[in-house]
Protein: Cupin type-1 domain-containing protein
Organism: Musa balbisiana
Amino acid sequence: MAASYVLLLLAALLALASSPSMARDPGALQDLCVADNTSNVFVNGFVCKDPKLVQAEDFFFSGLDQPRNTTNKVGSNVTLLNANRIPGLNTLGISMARVDYAPFGLNPPHIHPRATEIQTVLEGSLYVGFVTSNPDNRLVTKVLRKGDVFVFPQGLIHFQFNYGTNKAVALSGLSSQNPGVITIANSVFGSKPAISDDILAKALGVDKKIDLKLHAAPYMAASYVLLLLAALLALASSPSMARDPGALQDLCVADNTSNVFVNGFVCKDPKLVQAEDFFFSGLDQPRNTTNKVGSNVTLLNANRIPGLNTLGISMARVDYAPFGLNPPHIHPRATEIQTVLEGSLYVGFVTSNPDNRLVTKVLRKGDVFVFPQGLIHFQFNYGTNKAVALSGLSSQNPGLITIANSVFGSKPAISDDILAKALGVDKKIVDRIQAHF
Ligand SMILES: *[C@@H]1O[C@H](CO)[C@@H](O)[C@H](O)[C@H]1NC(C)=O
Ligand SMILES: *[C@@H]1O[C@H](CO)[C@@H](O)[C@H](O)[C@H]1NC(C)=O
Ligand SMILES: *[C@@H]1O[C@H](CO)[C@@H](O)[C@H](O)[C@H]1NC(C)=O
Ligand SMILES: *[C@@H]1O[C@H](CO)[C@@H](O)[C@H](O)[C@H]1NC(C)=O
Ligand SMILES: *[C@@H]1O[C@H](CO)[C@@H](O)[C@H](O)[C@H]1NC(C)=O
Ligand SMILES: *[C@@H]1O[C@H](CO)[C@@H](O)[C@H](O)[C@H]1NC(C)=O
């Protein structure tokens, strides 16, 4: 039933072949620009509120773990957390969505004009696909099960269908603060005013008549965090931040056999592109957190999912042992939007000079938090149970600068004279810390 519906709509759209103008979010010009919803000035995105009034709440959302009502025509319900819902996302180029699917529920064919989507299945299974643009219009499909991950490239028509008799739930990262949605059926057949039936009939080649937070404070880790933060803030070296370049074509699947060096990866022959290039399996599996920090990050970047090359997004699962810490680090090329799947976390980020403000929040299951591009941030599992979080990151290769490692464990080491001076401490203290790395 739904398959024929999907195909009908795809056929309709491919025939129309109108490619909306695609754009990438502009790069941020400052740490934060939290949307001020009281302003009546129109700008690209939103006017920023006074930085002094910025709160952790501006980067926060709660309840993403709650199932949504899917009793509607299509049997699916999308909860999109864009810059309208999380004002802190303004200028940061990323958003997150939860999609609930009833049995046989469909997220009908649609386009996000400004975003690539990376999706993982939390429950159930889905039949998903996207269609490349003219002239190939190739439909690339895949069946996804719990823990599978799939990429829908920017601006391409795509859909998800729950072909099973159980409900399904998926979580997506999208590479824009406001991805936009063009639902093919609605925009083709339900526009206001309507597209003339003459035009549609002609485009479709059919007759006009055919209708269509923190009480048990994490003292221990907090002091560790603060030590590292102090060290870093004193150093105050801001790495150069960049945004991924925009894609110049539908797809550029990384060719890992090429020995040509380019920005990102050389593309493989488009004819050899397969659904597997956009796919990863097993993100539902817990990772081993028996290590020094008690956390384990599984990052799906363009090295792991070759189809992500040129698409400006990636996804990560983070497992935290009880009292596990994802230590203070920076992603030089990405904003991160994270939701807690299990347990609870004490998280925070620090704004750049001269304020160096630490913004923190306790997150519970279903809570969502934003870590702005290039800012030092961390997550700490202050509980006695394990925790699991899932993140979207606005780069195919976000990069990772772990503060402790890069400051005290660089190879060769940063001279202890320099570090002692930067930190305002005795060289012997620096030597002791360096000995740990
Ligand atoms: C602006 O955001 C605040 C806090 O998120 C909300 O309470 C308020 O209703 C919003 N106002 C408008 C005009 O959207
Ligand atoms: C999605 O679910 C929410 C909460 O369950 C409900 O208020 C909303 O109407 C639903 N949207 C659609 C399109 O069914
Ligand atoms: C879901 O939405 C339908 C249609 O709006 C409504 O009849 C039903 O009561 C809702 N179910 C729940 C659990 O809120
Ligand atoms: C390239 O990717 C393929 C498929 O993902 C993998 O089997 C192969 O080991 C990779 N080769 C290199 C040189 O990384
Ligand atoms: C993360 O977990 C995987 C699989 O459980 C394991 O192979 C890997 O060594 C772990 N990494 C760290 C840093 O502990
Ligand atoms: C987790 O990693 C530790 C250290 O590498 C190892 O001793 C332990 O057997 C691993 N646990 C599992 C379940 O693989």
